[in-house]
Amino acid sequence: MSGSTENNATTDQAASGSSGLPGRLPRPAVGRLSLYFRELHRLADQGVSHVNSKELGALVDVSPAVVRRDLSSLGTIGRRGVGYAIDTLIDQIGLVLGSDVQWQVVLVGVGSLGNALLRYRGFERLGFRLTAAFDLDPSKIGNQVGGVSVWDAATMVGKLAELSPDLAILAVPAEQATAVASDLVASGVNGILNFAPTTLRLPRKVAVVNVDLASELQRLAFSVQNQ
Ligand SMILES: NC(=O)c1ccc[n+]([C@@H]2O[C@H](COP(=O)([O-])OP(=O)(O)OC[C@H]3O[C@@H](n4cnc5c(N)ncnc54)[C@H](O)[C@@H]3O)[C@@H](O)[C@H]2O)c1
């Protein structure tokens, strides 16, 4: 299991100015909170009510001391012999990560990847609501994918003015990515999850997270080779 943000297939290009994350939390800690959050939900689904730092640490591959430090930075102290109440932790971490609010998200590029992302049911639970998708391929425009309507990319700017999304997922070919990202930013999008293998040149106020599975695979191969 990937236990640290350093192992995640993401890199940040800019500070997340509007994300609501408290400045006092370093980014690796925020990444770990996200992993705790996922595991806590899983435990809650299994009917578990409490978890201790050793158990939670084992689930995300960090030491109990790190778990205690991260959670105490939220003002949460576990009770000896009982651990942490899972419901309370979910609420507190959700508050810090902004999962208590609904984020409106649009997706651009309904190809193989965009299709899979639109069909993924895991976003909603974390407060991300996919409200629209855009593509320029006439055979895709007007379709519904995962319950989300695909609109003509030529109408994107007007549609964005109507929807006012906070975030966007970019799944277009690399050559198209910067132009599409610029339109998104001009339309008020503050954060972009970029799957295109290119560095977006955008104003610093815009938060960009790049996801590059190919380079993560390369890192994995390097690790295996050098074990
Ligand atoms: N990060 C990763 O791990 C990862 C994995 C797979 C693919 N990718 C990247 O994600 C992107 C999408 O990959 P894919 O396999 O889904 O490609 P794809 O060719 O199947 O889909 C791309 C889609 O974007 C649409 N498109 C092109 N230009 C557009 C524009 N200006 N506005 C709106 N839509 C536009 C196309 O019509 C198509 O439907 C590529 O950049 C690819 O390199 C990244």
From TrEMBL:
<keyword id="KW-0678">Repressor</keyword>
<dbReference type="GO" id="GO:0005737">
    <property type="term" value="C:cytoplasm"/>
</dbReference>
<dbReference type="Pfam" id="PF02629">
    <property type="entry name" value="CoA_binding"/>
</dbReference>
<feature type="DNA-binding region" description="H-T-H motif">
    <location>
        <begin position="35"/>
        <end position="74"/>
    </location>
</feature>
<dbReference type="GO" id="GO:0003700">
    <property type="term" value="F:DNA-binding transcription factor activity"/>
</dbReference>
<keyword id="KW-0805">Transcription regulation</keyword>
<protein>
    <recommendedName>
        <fullName>Redox-sensing transcriptional repressor Rex</fullName>
    </recommendedName>
</protein>
<dbReference type="InterPro" id="IPR036388">
    <property type="entry name" value="WH-like_DNA-bd_sf"/>
</dbReference>
<keyword id="KW-0963">Cytoplasm</keyword>
<dbReference type="GO" id="GO:0051775">
    <property type="term" value="P:response to redox state"/>
</dbReference>
<comment type="similarity">
    <text>Belongs to the transcriptional regulatory Rex family.</text>
</comment>
<keyword id="KW-0520">NAD</keyword>
<feature type="binding site">
    <location>
        <begin position="109"/>
        <end position="114"/>
    </location>
    <ligand>
        <name>NAD(+)</name>
    </ligand>
</feature>
<dbReference type="InterPro" id="IPR003781">
    <property type="entry name" value="CoA-bd"/>
</dbReference>
<keyword id="KW-0238">DNA-binding</keyword>
<feature type="region of interest" description="Disordered">
    <location>
        <begin position="1"/>
        <end position="26"/>
    </location>
</feature>
<feature type="compositionally biased region" description="Polar residues">
    <location>
        <begin position="1"/>
        <end position="19"/>
    </location>
</feature>
<dbReference type="Pfam" id="PF06971">
    <property type="entry name" value="Put_DNA-bind_N"/>
</dbReference>
<comment type="function">
    <text>Modulates transcription in response to changes in cellular NADH/NAD(+) redox state.</text>
</comment>
<keyword id="KW-0804">Transcription</keyword>
<dbReference type="InterPro" id="IPR022876">
    <property type="entry name" value="Tscrpt_rep_Rex"/>
</dbReference>
<dbReference type="GO" id="GO:0003677">
    <property type="term" value="F:DNA binding"/>
</dbReference>
<dbReference type="GO" id="GO:0045892">
    <property type="term" value="P:negative regulation of DNA-templated transcription"/>
</dbReference>
<dbReference type="InterPro" id="IPR009718">
    <property type="entry name" value="Rex_DNA-bd_C_dom"/>
</dbReference>
<feature type="domain" description="CoA-binding">
    <location>
        <begin position="98"/>
        <end position="199"/>
    </location>
</feature>
<dbReference type="InterPro" id="IPR036390">
    <property type="entry name" value="WH_DNA-bd_sf"/>
</dbReference>
<dbReference type="InterPro" id="IPR036291">
    <property type="entry name" value="NAD(P)-bd_dom_sf"/>
</dbReference>
<comment type="subunit">
    <text>Homodimer.</text>
</comment>
